[in-house]
Write a structure and sequence with these properties.
By secondary structure, the protein is mainly α. It has 2 domains: 29 residues; 246 residues, Rhopdopsin 7-helix transmembrane proteins (Up-down Bundle), CATH 1.20.1070. 72% of the residues lie in helices and 3% in strands. It has a two-stranded antiparallel ribbon with strand order 1-2. It starts with a helix and ends in a 22-residue tail after the last helix.
């Protein structure tokens, strides 16, 4: 009788623990090795990670070679910021491929996959939060913008990524997932405004309008794809499955990061003198020409 009661108490305690864990949306049985195996078993999903690991590695080697003769401090800062993009990407995609930055979350009521555990690649949001500010830093330096605009766009960009992560991880309410999504999109509008309205004028004054406008269009078009595929993917409306959504993100990353970086560094290596004419920002070491200085806040 005592043994029976003891077993009942243990079962009740285990059941209570399972309920508690489920409330936080964490899978009850999926360990990291099991998640890794799930990724390995999905050939399409796994390939979307390793393709970017390979391209990021090649990009790092190529960009280091391209920047070997860059001497101007401002041009060097653009190069370093751009080089950080594939460095962050190779780390992030390794985390995804290993299962380290992936979780299975049970979707809330109202979701197309309500009650099902869906693979959530939350590590991508860490990538975007670290790599996209570097892209914007390089673009801002290219445009010769002031510190106010640079701070504003980078802050809005990081907020966009963090609230996007919140949308992906919220399992308490389907409506709140979309509320986080729209907050993220609002921050994105701030980024788009500065990219499309403010910085083109700065780039025109800096003499870098041609290359800036090319990179601006590339960035805006590709970045618009991320919220679209989030909405269509398993985290949103579940029109696309996880593997297809992952490949969509991977293709967007290839264009928005590696192609972008190659075009920018190619131009900087060939037009370093134009970059050197611009005044220093944040003590890059470049001495301002007579009559110039740190750009004033407009």
């Amino acid at each position: 009788m005592i043994v029976h009661k003891s077993n009942c108490i243990m079962l009740e305690a285990a059941a209570a623990e399972m309920v508690t864990l489920a409330q936080f949306g964490f899978p009850l049985e999926m360990t990291q090795p099991e998640i890794f195996q799930e990724v390995q078993d999905d050939v399409v999903l796994n390939a979307s990670f390793w393709a970017n690991i390979a391209l990021a590695g090649l990009s790092i080697l190529l960009f280091v070679y391209m920047g070997r003769n860059v001497d101007d401090p401002r041009a060097q800062l653009i190069w370093v910021a751009t080089l950080m993009v594939p460095l962050v990407s190779i780390s992030s995609y390794t985390g995804l491929a290993s299962g380290l930055t992936i979780s299975f979350l049970e979707m809330p009521a109202g979701h197309a996959l309500a009650g099902e555990e869906v693979l959530t690649m939350w590590g991508r949001y860490l990538t975007w939060a670290l790599s996209t500010p570097m892209i914007l830093l390089a673009l801002g330096l290219l445009a010769g913008t002031n510190m106010t605009k640079l701070f504003t766009i980078i802050t809005a960009d990081i907020a966009m990524c963090v609230t996007g992560l919140a949308a992906a991880l919220t399992v308490s309410s389907y409506g709140l997932r979309w509320f986080w999504y729209f907050i993220s999109c609002t921050f994105f509008l701030v980024v788009l405004y500065i990219l499309l309205v403010e910085w083109p004028k700065d780039a025109e004054a800096a003499g870098t309008a041609d290359i800036f406008n090319t990179l601006k269009i590339l960035t805006v078009v590709l970045w618009l794809g991320y919220p679209i595929f989030w909405a269509l993917g398993a985290e949103g409306l579940a029109v696309l499955d996880v593997a297809i959504t992952s490949w969509a993100y991977s293709f967007l990353d290839i264009g928005a990061k590696y192609v972008f970086a190659y075009l920018l560094l190619s131009w900087v290596a060939s037009n370093e003198a134009i970059i050197a004419e611009r005044p220093a920002i944040m003590g890059t070491g470049a001495e301002a020409a007579e009559g110039t200085g740190t750009p004033a806040d407009d």
